[in-house]
């Protein structure tokens, strides 16, 4: 057994949804005892840090029901089954902002909540944006407003907790650390 590995004894799927699946696993711990683990299975997601020619970051504001408030975030979305993350990133950029690009650079991937979920988010950046004449429509149940902020304005939104999610905070930290804007 690998160091700290928990061996699955039994796994039961308790919910199969549109975005997530939930399962409960019985596991054997490294010390030989057993425990239950409640797991959220997620197909993964992508996010894009879009930078305009005048060095502003494009964000979207949308209502987040679990939080009962709107957040300002970088464009992002769930991966479809077996979808290439780079293709998904372009799709989400187009649907949410009306911009496209042929020049996305991979930044990083990270797990959002590894204590109970397997969601992996892939982040890309571009400063080669092209405004689309006829952008594709987003999801029927998704309502977003596009806004552009300077890096300093985005940092202020973090302080005000208007930007308050991990992927967007990471994007701002990444741009700040590189002195990119």
Task: Walk me through what this model shows.
By secondary structure, this protein is of the alpha+beta class. It has helices at 85-97, 151-159, 166-178, and strands at residues 7-16, 21-28, 34-41, 45-50, 57-64, 69-73, 76-78, 99-100, 105-111, 120-126, 130-131, 145-149. The chain folds into 2 domains: 7-41, no CATH class; 46-178, Nucleoside Triphosphate Pyrophosphohydrolase. It has a 4-stranded mixed beta sheet. A hairpin with an 8-residue loop joins strand 9 and strand 10 (120-126). The chain starts with 6 loop residues before the first strand and ends with a helix.
Short key terms for the protein model shown above:
181 residues; alpha+beta; Nucleoside Triphosphate Pyrophosphohydrolase; 4-stranded mixed beta sheet; 3-stranded antiparallel beta sheet; hydrolase; ADP-ribose pyrophosphatase
What is the secondary structure topology, with strand pairs?
Blueprint: E1 7-16, E2 21-28, E3 34-41, E4 45-50, E5 57-64, E6 69-73, E7 76-78, H1 85-97, E8 99-100, E9 105-111, E10 120-126, E11 130-131, E12 145-149, H2 151-159, H3 166-178
Parallel strand pairs: 4-10
Antiparallel strand pairs: 1-2, 2-3, 4-7, 5-6, 5-12, 8-11, 9-10
Helix pairs in contact: 2-3
Helix content range of the residues, please?
10-25%
Our count of helices gives 3
CATH hierarchy class name of the largest domain: Alpha Beta
Total of domains: 2
| Unreliably modeled segments | none
Cofactor: Mg(2+)
GO molecular function: ADP-ribose diphosphatase activity
EC number: 3.6.1.13
Keywords: Hydrolase
């Amino acid at each position: 057994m690998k160091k700290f590995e928990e061996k699955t004894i039994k796994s039961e799927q308790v919910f199969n949804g549109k975005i997530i699946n939930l399962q409960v696993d019985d596991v054997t711990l490294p010390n030989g005892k057993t425990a239950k683990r409640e797991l959220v299975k997620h197909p993964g997601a992508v996010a894009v840090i879009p930078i305009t020619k005048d060095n502003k970051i494009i964000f979207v504001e949308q209502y987040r029901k679990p939080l009962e408030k709107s957040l300002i975030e970088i464009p992002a979305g769930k991966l479809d089954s077996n979808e290439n993350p780079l293709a998904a990133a372009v799709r989400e950029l187009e649907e949410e902002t009306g911009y496209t690009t042929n020049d996305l650079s991979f930044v990083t991937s990270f797990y959002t909540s590894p204590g109970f979920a397997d969601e992996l988010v892939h982040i890309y950046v571009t400063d080669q944006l092209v405004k689309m004449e006829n952008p594709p429509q987003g999801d029927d149940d998704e309502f977003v407003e596009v806004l552009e902020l300077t890096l300093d304005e985005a940092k202020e939104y973090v302080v005000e907790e208007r930007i308050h999610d991990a992927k967007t905070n990471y994007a701002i930290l990444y741009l700040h650390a590189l002195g990119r804007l």
